[in-house]
Amino acid sequence: MERELHPKKFFTKEEDSQIIRAIQKAEKATSGELRIHLIKQIKKDPMREAVRIFKLLGMHKTKQRNGCLILIGLKNKKVVVIGDKGINDIVRNNFWDDVVAVMIEGFKKDKFVEGLERGILMIGEKLKQYFPYATDDVNELSDEISKEEL
Q1: Is 112 helix (H, G, I), strand (E, B) or coil?
Q2: Which residue of 62, 68, 72, 101 sits 20 to 30 Å from the alpha carbon of 116, by its own alpha carbon?
């Protein structure tokens, strides 16, 4: 299936729901918060663009500073995963590399949802080590996929 490279049309409603369920499942293992943002193309430095979007989505406002963003540039097939200060202060620099590799492996096979799901669940497992789920945990960020130019 040829996908339209527009953030709002890339995934079907069913695929959106499947990805959101993966986010919710991952967040059941951790107090960390996970967001996905789709843009048509990452035009600037990918890391800087991810940081900019992270801030625009208000992801730096979580209580434990443990938000994680997956940024996907559809047209140029770039994927960036970044974490907030609470995560970055305690993990190694290449903490997200294997997550990105797993997602890209799926994307190369046109298995976007499956690649994303695997990456999301990996993030949940990784964050669980440092930010275990607490019974009084509050979902601080939307689980919806953000899909537009910010």
Answers
A1: helix
A2: 62
Integer Cα distance of 62 and 45 in angstroms: 25
Q: What is the DSSP string of 14-66?
A: HHHHHHHHHHHHHHTSBS-EEEEEEES---S-HHHHHHHHHHHTTGGGSTTS-
Dihedral sign, CA of 112, 46, 132, 16? negative
Mean of pLDDT values over 21-40? 96
Q: Alpha carbon 94 to chain centroid distance?
A: 16
pTM: 0.94
Nearest Cα residue to 34 out of 54, 11, 14: 54
Q: Please compute the mean of the pLDDT values over residues 63-90 and round it to a whole number.
A: 94
Domains of the chain: 31-130 (3.10.310.50)
Phi, psi of 38 (to 5 degrees): -105, 135
pLDDT, average across residues 125-138: 90
